[in-house]
Structure formats: structure tokens, C-alpha cells
């Protein structure tokens, strides 16, 4: 009874093309919406650490001064939170899965020397501006304190 029930389906399948692809002999086909893996445009990264804080697996690390961003690809679950949180939109989900391997999957990306130099100059300018602002504030406070002090004539009049 059960053979008769499935026989038409089995016969139909004999004449249908296979539903699977012959990977790796044919290229893999990723369904729409497949998450793939994370890639970074490292020169656009500002080292804010938002991605690190949003990652539920603790697989990311960033070193702002060194201009590096690291990911352990075997720990990543491709949830995409880091992509959503990045304020510079320098993280993207790229089609294709992480290649399996026996070694640790940590990969570190480093900014280009040109970008590292630009960052250094920007930091120096920022530090100069901050120092100038502190100096101006101190000067203003000293002038205000001076104006509040009674003059010598006023002090003599009080006596
Ligand atoms: S995709 Fe998810 S698990 Fe992978 S690095 Fe980003 S936040 Fe972490
Ligand atoms: S959130 Fe984006 S800009 Fe910030 S450290 Fe991560 S990758 Fe860099």
C-alpha cells in the first residue's frame, strides 16, 4: 500500500533535475537573505568600539591607537548586530561562509600607513584645540576672579 502511494512521486523524481548543486564543482548559490560573513573597510573605522560592545559572542576587538580591528571568525554567529551598530557603516555582511579550518580563526585588519598618518595628525590637532580651550577657560576664570577683588581705594575707604 505504502509503495503504491509513493511510487508516482518516485517516478516523477527520476526525470527531474537534482535540487542540489554539485559544489565544489559548481559555484555555491546563496539564498536571498543569507548572512554570509563580516567584512570591514578598515580605513573608515574610527575605533569607537560600538561593534565590540554589541557583539554577543565577544569575538571582536579593536585598538584605536594601533589602527587595528580583529575578529575570530569561528566564534562569529553572523547575527549582524555589529553591522547595525557601526556609526561609520564600515562593516558589511558579504555573501559566502567562513572557510572551515583546524586553526584559530582570528583575523586582524590594520589601517593603511596613509590613514594612520591622517589619524595621527587629527589626534594632534584635537589635542592642540583642547589645550587652547583649557588655556582660554583658565584665563577667563582668572580675569573674573580679578574683577571680583576690591581695588586698593575701595579697601582703604572701608577702613
Ligand atoms: S555578526 Fe554578530 S557575532 Fe559576528 S562579529 Fe558581528 S556582532 Fe559579533
Ligand atoms: S563600530 Fe565601526 S567604527 Fe566603531 S570600532 Fe567598530 S568597525 Fe570601527
How would you describe the overall organization of this protein?
Helix content is 42%, strand content 14%. With 159 residues, the protein is of the alpha+beta class. It has two domains: 29-111, Alpha-Beta Plaits (2-Layer Sandwich), CATH 3.30.70.3270; 112-148. The strands form two sheets. It has a three-stranded antiparallel beta sheet, with no helix packed on it. A two-stranded antiparallel sheet has the order 1-4. A hairpin with a 4-residue loop joins strand 2 (60-63) and strand 3 (68-72). The termini are far apart. The protein binds iron/sulfur cluster (2 copies). The site of one iron/sulfur cluster has 15 residues, from helix 2.
Question: Nutshell version of this structure?
Answer:
This protein has 159 residues and is α+β, with helices and mostly antiparallel strands. The chain contains 5 helices and 5 strands, in the order αβαββαββαα.
- Fraction of residues in helices? 40-55%
Bound molecules: iron/sulfur cluster
Q: What would you say the CATH architecture of the largest domain is?
A: 2-Layer Sandwich
Measured by DSSP, the beta-strand proportion falls in 5-15%
Counting DSSP E segments of at least 2 residues, the number of strands comes to 5
What can be said about the biggest beta sheet? 3 strands, antiparallel
Structural class by helix and strand composition: alpha+beta
The CATH class of the largest domain turns out to be: Alpha Beta
Order of secondary-structure elements: HEHEEHEEHH
Based on CA inertia axes, which overall geometry fits? elongated
Radius of gyration: 32 Å
**Whole-number average pLDDT?**
89
Could you tell me the CATH topology label of the largest domain.
Alpha-Beta Plaits
Question: How many helices in DSSP terms?
Answer: 5
Question: Which spans of ≥5 residues are poorly predicted at pLDDT below 50?
Answer: none
What is the CA–CA distance across the termini? 122 Å
Amino acid at each position: 500500500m505504502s509503495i503504491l502511494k509513493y511510487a508516482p512521486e518516485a517516478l516523477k523524481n527520476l526525470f527531474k533535475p537534482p535540487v542540489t548543486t554539485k559544489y565544489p564543482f559548481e559555484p555555491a548559490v546563496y539564498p536571498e537573505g543569507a548572512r554570509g560573513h563580516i567584512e570591514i573597510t578598515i580605513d573608515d573605522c574610527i575605533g569607537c568600539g560600538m561593534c565590540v560592545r554589541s557583539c554577543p559572542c565577544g569575538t571582536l576587538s579593536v585598538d584605536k591607537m594601533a589602527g587595528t580591528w580583529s575578529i575570530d571568525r569561528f566564534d562569529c554567529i553572523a547575527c549582524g548586530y555589529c553591522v547595525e551598530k557601526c556609526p561609520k557603516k564600515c562593516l558589511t555582511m558579504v555573501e559566502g561562509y567562513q572557510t572551515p579550518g583546524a586553526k584559530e580563526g582570528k583575523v586582524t585588519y590594520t589601517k593603511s600607513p596613509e590613514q594612520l598618518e591622517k589619524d595621527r595628525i587629527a589626534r594632534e590637532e584635537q589635542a592642540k584645540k583642547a589645550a587652547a580651550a583649557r588655556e582660554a577657560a583658565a584665563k577667563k576664570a582668572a580675569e573674573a576672579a580679578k574683577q571680583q577683588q576690591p581695588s586698593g581705594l575701595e579697601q582703604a575707604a572701608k577702613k
